[in-house]
Amino acid sequence: MTIMEDFWRWRERAAExxxxxxxxxxxxxxxxxxxxxxxxxxxxxxxxxGLRGVLGAxxxxxxLYVVRRATQGLCDYxxxxxxxxxxxxxxxxxxxSDLFAREAARVLAANGVTAWLYPRLxxxxxxxxxxxxxxxxxxxxxxxxxxxxxxxxxxxxGPDGCQxxxxxxxxxxxxxxxxxxxxxxxxxxxxxxxxxxTIRMIGEDCLDVYLExxxxxxxxxxxxxxxxxxxxxxxxxxxxxxxxxLRMIGVxxxxxxxxxxxxxxxxxxxxxxxxxxxxxxxxxxxxxxxVRPDLLLGTxxxxxxxxxxxxxxxxxxxxTGNEMGxxxxxxICRRRIExxxxxxxxVAVTTIVSTDMADAVAAKYGVExxxxxxxxxxxxxxxGRLEAAGEADRYIFGFEESYGYLSGGHVRDKDxxxxxxxxxxxxxxxxxxxMTLAQALDALYAEFGCWQNALHSFTFEGASGMEKMRGVxxxxxxxxxxxxxxxxxxxxxxxxTGEGVMRDLPRSxxxxxxxxxxxxxVRPSGTEPKLKLYLxxxxxTSEQAQAQNQAMLEELAAAYLG
Length: 562
Prior knowledge:
This protein has helices at 3-13, 18-30, 33-40, 64-81, 97-110, 124-133, 166-177, 190-196, 204-215, 239-248, 278-291, 321-339, 357-364, 376-388, 416-431, 437-448, 465-478, 542-561; strands at 51-54, 86-91, 114-117, 138-142, 151-157, 199-201, 228-232, 253-256, 295-299, 306-312, 315-319, 347-351, 368-372, 395-400, 404-406, 450-459, 483-484, 487-488, 491-494, 511-514, 518-524, 530-539. By secondary structure, it is an alpha/beta fold. Helix 9 (204-215) crosses helix 10 and helix 12 packs parallel to helix 13.
């Protein structure tokens, strides 16, 4: 079928969503060949994170027809794999998230797969919990995480509560490819599903037990933390669970940023609702000037990432994902040793793109640090392997540089509810010793060396974007850099071929270059049309380390991205 044939098919058949009808009509009226081409030149890719794309009409956009087709493929996969015929569904505050969640439930129910649906928006980790709580064969979370408002997505989870494996993702993609988008999907009404019991609402008991499981990960001796906190859910799904867990650990002085308190998929105060980005935290930082809290917390729209800012002199200092990961790793080790709860042969897990400072901290406490590919599902897999070996108690903490943290095996994805609790406990613990988190971090830098990390993303939009990204990766492989920032490249690893890789990891399109005091990793994003460059440097001062990162950026950009 040609692009225009597919367009006219959609023009005739895609009549259920008025927004899609208007969009298709406008494309026709404007004779917008480029716009039509971008929407219809391919199917939206189903990757290891499921689907993620811009909202709109066509197979290369997120819409109810694409969601239905994906869900039909998921149903076919569950049957073929012999997995339990049930799936949990959660959704966040994004535009059409509630619609897509209901459409997924309708398809599941029509296929004889019981759909357990949260009755209101809830965090992604609560979905991971629900999958195992109900013994489901899969889970679906409708979210585009921290992307701009024009995006939505469809994350798929396995029966272990992890995002599906590479092999499972390939099998689901193959099942989806066999489904005709309009004629190949089984569908019942939502009311029919409810009446038949094939659509069921997730009960309050599930969420209550999830929050209690989070609370059991506490390493604090106090049941009443005298702490002042400002919190922003960034108009997302975190408000209920984060404020509840803070009350459960005795944090009662919580001020919620009013403009970002309630769910709003348009994200009117921050076009990019990502706590990694300063712009998203600006309203919270402004409120800190009058409230003067001990800690500012921010969670992304699906509440799996947590960002923070802490008092530093007369203002507030944003803590990066790597910095928070190192702080929490050190704090959990200290507290477990003090409380006599550190297991024998403890294990912490992070990713290949996260700071090498974690290795030094882990070594101090005798913790085995494992590194995985990028993506928290690989950290979740490590937890599962420990559990399968009867050694689940060995796992003490996992983190990734992109603001994801988890201190227990209660879920198998990053958990901003868990991270918010730990950040509050850590802040109170240091405050009792006369220190802010900024001072605690500086003390770690003084002990282990000053590590600075940077992430730069290069966007490649449109039909030619993927080809351009492949060209950059090919150039890096065929003529790799010999030096970076004035230092010889002494180590190289290609995670796609396995060359130079010191760990037993799945193959992935990632390149790593190391110098004596720095490293650079390059990988295409698995969910966005972006090439990501991770830089890390160790120097006596942060200024020197940042300058080294900048030099590596400029050299790599000039040689390969110009």
